[in-house]
Amino acid sequence: MSQTPxxxxxxxxxxxxxxxxxxxxxxxxxxxDIDIHTGExxxxxxxxxxxxxxxxxxxxxxxxxxAGELSLDGKLLAGLAEDRLAxxxxxxxxxxxxxFHLIPxxxxxxxxxxxxxxxxxxxxxxxxxxxxxxxGLASRADHRPKELSGGEMQRVAxxxxxxxxxxxxxxxxxxxxxxxxxxxxxxSLLHSLVKNQGLTVIITTHNLALAYQADRIITxxxxxxxxxxxxxx
Amino acid sequence: xxxxxxxxxxLLRRPVRTVLTVSGVSLAVAxxxxxxxxNLGYREALDRSIERxxxxxxxxxxxxxxxxxxxxxxxGTGLLYLPADIYNTVKSDPSIQSITPxxxxxxxxxxxxxxxxxSTQSFSIISGIDTESFMTMKPWLxxxxxxxxxxxxxxxxxxxxxxxxGFEAAQYEQRKVGDSFYATVTPNGQTEVKTHEFKxxxxxxxxxxxxxxxxxxxxxxxxSIFNRTNDLxxxxxxxxxFGAVELREFEGRWLKIPEVQVVSLEQVKGTLVSLVGTAxxxxxxxxxxxxxxxxxxxxxTILMSVYERTGEIGVMKALGAYRSDIFRLIWLETLAVCTxxxxxxxxxxxxxxxxxxxxxxxxINLGVQGSIVRITPGLIGGALVASIxxxxxAGLYPAWRAASMRPIEAIREGE
Lengths: 233, 415
Hints:
- Chain A is of the alpha/beta class.
- Chain A has 7 helices and 10 strands.
- Chain B has 15 helices and 11 strands.
């Protein structure tokens, strides 16, 4: 489905996610209404255990809500099985994780090309190098992850997320394992992707200084959105 | 990048563990292939040895069927004798195409052998034969010719001083045509040993049967030196038409003689197969246990690898992998381990066939000559298919476990 600028690409209404922990029911998310617009960079902040990762997991179809409605790129996701959710994710969403999760036996280029294998798309070395150039790592294409610094590994993760030309990039604590300067560099890289490629970026972070560089900051506490603010971008 | 590339790179992540698992599979396959090769080779060697006896059945003194079987194929142990006049009686049977009387005796080499190792080769098998009827049964017997071998001939019919040596008997004693051969015999009913000197008139070419280790001499002379002038050991018989019915009819006619048993080659084969069968079952049990242990090893290794990569599997799912992608990936790893193990196992079995043969011969007396372990392309193909099937089934559970992981939980666990 084609999107007009600033149209809603992810919409959640009354999203709830409850877990059973023994006899107790944990309300990780307790009725969240949220709209994410195309080309927007949104930071989700809140204390540990507030529900920000749970919200991101729902928005990225990695988890299914206990109740509520969620649509992604115009598709209603209620009641979809795991493989159907994977089908919605494929090619539409890109992911960056706090711990990078690169495959240690693959080279940087192979790690970047990994999602293409699952999408049954052919690999193109030039395209891979182009993506690696966009994150400043073309010269490291044949290196193994263990030969890279933390910041470089996260850049590879960004390149891996970009190789499928996703519409939305989901970044869960992408700077959590990085020093301040490297974290800022990664944030700035994501900024440039929003600016230059019209990518939609959703980031969870504890770093408020970085969070406020986004278009919008959503604060979540006890499974509910308690505040929405405009950012500095 | 293809799934198989990723699968093989995953296996190289823990090379020692992968090598150990592949080794387990290859050893199990090697044992199974060697056992299969033994089963195949032994039956063929048995068929060959029995076919090379030249006769379809024999009449011999009543006794243990195992001894009868050994007697036919090795010619030396548990000698029992039957009256020689039975030969003249049986010879008139109209269903017989050819018949030959054989007298077998054991001679000590004491004081005659050029070798000192008396433990295993201190006896010679002496076979008294009627050359004309014997050669009718075994037309393939030829004298050894070529460099170092003088032209040979059969002994004179009534000679008391001439012998012909089988190929291995001559080799072991390092004798050639024209040399002397000594045999020390204890005549029947006497206590004093007598040493006889013979002239070697010929050395037979290799046949791959008991004949290779036998010393042949005229029937009458053999009977005479053993003081058994009215005895025979076996009467070899070839029927005009041979089948179950003909055999039963022939047995019915001659089993009425109380001292004899009619033993067919099929019976001998059955006896020897059942004799070795117990050992084969034991080896088969070891092979099956080895295969089961190997399968458990493979499942364990792949499961460990799956658990170690829980986070990665979650990430791959997040990146767009379907359950089928993850299943295929883990399954391919298992198949790669089992196929590589299968290939190596076949290689080990081929290279180690002679070692296995020597080990089996050291453990049990098989009563056959020639190679007893035969590894065929069909056997190798079967083993490879079995290895792949092993991987196919061994990989199902780990692959299912990995494919069933929910991405978000897997990523969380991996962290």
